[in-house]
Design goal:
Elements: H1 2-7, H2 12-27, H3 30-41
Length: 50
């Protein structure tokens, strides 16, 4: 996603706004919580891709 934003021909402010929105979407997934839990529990992740 970051590479796509860098290649867009827009002002930096608009690209930063898009980056914030994309990050928020990724941060709100169940896979994020699974990643944290697997790290803390020292086990392999079971990502669902949701």
């Amino acid at each position: 996603m970051a590479k796509i934003l860098l290649n867009e021909n827009q002002k930096i402010e608009k690209r930063l706004e898009k980056e914030i929105n994309l990050f928020a979407r990724c941060f709100a997934t169940q896979d994020r919580q699974e990643g944290i839990n697997t790290f803390l529990e020292k086990r392999k992740p079971m990502f669902k891709g949701v």
